[in-house]
Amino acid sequence: MTTARRVIFDIARSWFPVHFHPLVCLLRATSGTGSLESSFVAAGDESWQRCSAYVYHYFLQLPTFTQVIPMAARTGIGALYEAMIDAKLYTGGVMYRNVRAIHLPGRSLLPRHSSSRLLSTVAEPNNSVVIEWEHEHSGWRVMLELLQDYLKQSEVPQGSTRACASAVPPRGTEITLGLEDLGMESKEDEELVMDALDLVRTIIHGNSVLMTELMVE
């Protein structure tokens, strides 16, 4: 991958999964299987298989995980995140760390006091902040959780309410966040689901090896 192309991917990756669409669409385009209506390469084409394998493994081991943290989650006695001030650290000398271990969407565990990088500028104290954790995880598992949440929506009776996953737990315990707790981009669920399914289609197209690996993942 060229340096210029790497920069484009790094920017999209650094905002995933808060901005879900850009990275997924870039990976879809890089897989090189053509449009939804037709494929311009044969299923056994060697160059296409290399592209698909690269996309699969890139998404399998993303080095960062991004989330939006509201003011309420980083202030007060029950704060889940704390600011660390150091002139040598990141934008404005501020970074945030989690005071409890966090089960993130996609079944990965973010250890307590993990390192982060501030992506947003804090113009007002009450504004939310966007941070990027230094945390390796599988984008495929995050995508699977997105699809599972979409299917569950039709199973929830009208009038029922979902317990807030980000509610303050007893001190010292781990917490679990769902996709809705991350501050993901406001976008129609159907569009996000179509993006996810389209990427899966391009990866498994005529490739039984990647299909098996993806199903196991």
Share of helical residues: 25-40%
The side-by-side strand order for the widest beta sheet comes to 1-7-6
Number of strands: 8
How would you spell out the order of helices and strands? HHHEEEEEEEHEHH
Distance between the termini: 25 Å
- Low-pLDDT residue intervals, each spanning 5 or more residues: 159-167
Radius of gyration: 19 Å
- Mean pLDDT, to the nearest integer, reads 81
- The tally of helices reads 6
Shape: globular
Fraction in beta strands? 15-25%
Biggest β-sheet strands, sense, barrel = 3 strands, antiparallel
Q: What structural class do you assign from the helix and strand content?
A: alpha+beta
For the record, the count of structural domains works out to: 2
Describe the structure.
With 217 residues, the protein is of the alpha+beta class. The protein folds into two domains: 88 residues, no CATH class; 106 residues, no CATH class. It is built from six helices and eight strands, in the order H-H-H-E-E-E-E-E-E-E-H-E-H-H. It has a three-stranded antiparallel β-sheet. Helix 4 packs across helix 5. The longest helix has 16 residues. The chain is globular and about 55 Å long. The chain starts with a helix and ends with a helix. The relative contact order is 0.18.
Ordered list of secondary-structure elements with their pairings:
Elements: H1 3-14, H2 20-30, H3 46-60, E1 62-69, E2 81-85, E3 94-98, E4 102-104, E5 108-110, E6 116-118, E7 129-137, H4 139-153, E8 175-176, H5 189-204, H6 208-216
Parallel strand pairs: 4-8
Antiparallel strand pairs: 1-7, 2-3, 4-5, 6-7
Helix pairs in contact: 2-5, 4-5
